[in-house]
Every structure is written in structure tokens, then in C-alpha cells.
Automatic annotation (TrEMBL):
Gene3D superfamilies for the chain: 2-enoyl-CoA Hydratase, Chain A, domain 1
Domain of life: Bacteria
InterPro entries: ClpP/crotonase-like_dom_sf (IPR029045), Enoyl-CoA_hyd/isom_CS (IPR018376), Enoyl-CoA_hydra/iso (IPR001753)
Organism of provenance: Sphingomonas melonis
Protein name according to UniProt: Enoyl-CoA hydratase/carnithine racemase
Record Pfam families: ECH_1
PROSITE patterns: ENOYL_COA_HYDRATASE (PS00166)
Family, as annotated: Belongs to the enoyl-CoA hydratase/isomerase family.
A GO molecular-function annotation: catalytic activity
């Protein structure tokens, strides 16, 4: 088990590695957290005893996304010819070779939605919400969401989520295929573990081979897409609308956007 004081811990239940992240109260995603989850995934990938992974978080919120008001990873200047480390770490999560089941207990917003989309399956409680809120920030989607979400829910629903910033409730997410299992909150982690154990009961080489056929292109896809997302975010974050969007979200009010 990893250091219990770290933002990410790993425990094992049979052939399942349970990766838990904790950044209370909002579980904001920053570079350190994404890199820590990536390191946990790499550890699980390298362990021949592990056949499946559960990704879960502590608290009421699954992940509220990046804390753009305090620590915007897009605004950091990068040496010419290098890639933004936040997006490098985000894309690397999609390179995990073993199946991942996410247990989503509450809101998955922005980068939190991206984290949920890393998983092959999402088990959700009724309180879960899925939000691509970037337009409410005057921003472009990141974390590969502009590519991966469409593959899960289809183009029209992905457009609806991305262009409206609408909060998708767990029941609707289940109807759309964004949630694979909708379960009572007090059964969430048990059901996510049960699904991971069911997957782990299969022949591990066959499971990994089949998964690679169905999802093996995601890492390259997300790498390409995050380069495009970052380029769009880089100019949008210099606009007055972005500054207003961040203020509006922090002040819990609708944005007053001017197109500048």
C-alpha cells in the first residue's frame, strides 16, 4: 500500500488494484494528482498479479476539475517544442493496459469528466453528475474530452454536453451509455469492485488483447487531441470572456460574455 498521507493510495483485493485519490473537499485535478494517478496505474500495469483496476475518490465529489482560479496548468509557459506536462500526464492515463472501472459518487466536472472517461466502465451513484462546463468558463474542452466523449455517447450528445455545459444526471448518463451501472450510493464501491473482479476472472492475456483491439488507439488519439485542445485553450485563456468565466464560476453566477 502507498503512503496513506499521499493524494493517491493503492490497495489490492485479489487480482484488483483499487486506486483511491483524495484532495478534499473538491478533489481538484492538478499536475501532481494526475501524475500520481498515472504512477499508480503504471504500478498496477507492471504487477502481474493485477488484472483490473478500480479508480475511486474520497468525499462527496468525484473530481471538480482543475482549479483554474488558483492553478491553471494551461497558463504555464512551456519551452518551445515541448508539450504541456499536465496534458502529457493526462494522455498517459489512457495508455494503461489493464481494464479500469471508475466508481463515480458525485460530480465529475471538466477534467473530472476526463478522469471518468479514462475508465473502460463507469459505475455511478444517483448523486453523480457529468459536466463538460468549459463554455461556461469561456474555454475549450481539455483532457481529450473533445475526442473521447463522442466515442462513448455519440457525436450529438457530446456536442450537447460540450456546447451547453449542461449537468447530466446519473439516470440520463446511464440512458446514454456514459454510465454502465447505476447503483445505490451505499453499494457503489462494492459494485465497482465486483465488476472489476468479474473482468479479472477472465483469462488475463485474452482480456488485455481484446481491450487493446477495442481501445488501444486511445492513447495516440488523446495525445493528438490534447495538442489541439491546448492550442485552443492557449488563445482563449487570454480573452476577456475567459477571465469573466472564471470570475462567474467562483462567484456562482452566470457569466456575462461579450465575445472578446
Amino acid at each position: 500500500m502507498t503512503n496513506p498521507q499521499a493524494p493517491v493510495t493503492i490497495i489490492h483485493d485479489g487480482h484488483v488494484a483499487i486506486v483511491t485519490f483524495a484532495r478534499p473537499p473538491h478533489n481538484f485535478a492538478d499536475l501532481a494528482l494526475i501524475e500520481a494517478i498515472g504512477a499508480a496505474f503504471a504500478t498496477a500495469d507492471a504487477d502481474p498479479h493485477v488484472r483490473a483496476i478500480v479508480l475511486q475518490s474520497d468525499g462527496r465529489i468525484f473530481c471538480a476539475g482543475a482549479d483554474l482560479a488558483r492553478d491553471n496548468p494551461v497558463e504555464r509557459e512551456q519551452p518551445e517544442g515541448t508539450r504541456n506536462p499536465f496534458y502529457v500526464a493526462a494522455a498517459r492515463l489512457f495508455a494503461v493496459r489493464k481494464p479500469v472501472v471508475a466508481a463515480v459518487q458525485g460530480s465529475a466536472v471538466g477534467a473530472g469528466l476526463g478522469l471518468a472517461l479514462v475508465a473502460d466502465f463507469r459505475v455511478a451513484a444517483p448523486e453523480a453528475r457529468f459536466v463538460a462546463n468549459f463554455v461556461h468558463l469561456g474555454f475549450h474542452p481539455g483532457f481529450g474530452i473533445s475526442a473521447v466523449l463522442e466515442r462513448v455517447v455519440g457525436r450529438q450528445r457530446a456536442l450537447l454536453m460540450n456546447l451547453t455545459g449542461r449537468r447530466i444526471k446519473a439516470e440520463q448518463a446511464a440512458e446514454w451509455g456514459l454510465v454502465d451501472l447505476l447503483v445505490p450510493a451505499d453499494r457503489l464501491r462494492a459494485e465497482a469492485l465486483a465488476l472489476a473482479q468479474e473482468i479479472a476472472a477472465g483469462a488475463p492475456l485474452a482480456v488485455q488483447s481484446t481491450r487493446a483491439t477495442l481501445r488501444g488507439d486511445l492513447f495516440d488519439l488523446v495525445q493528438r487531441q490534447t495538442d489541439h485542445e491546448l492550442a485552443e485553450q492557449a488563445w482563449l485563456q487570454k480573452t476577456a470572456d475567459f477571465a469573466e468565466g472564471v470570475r462567474a464560476v467562483n462567484e456562482r453566477r452566470p457569466g456575462n460574455f461579450t465575445g472578446r
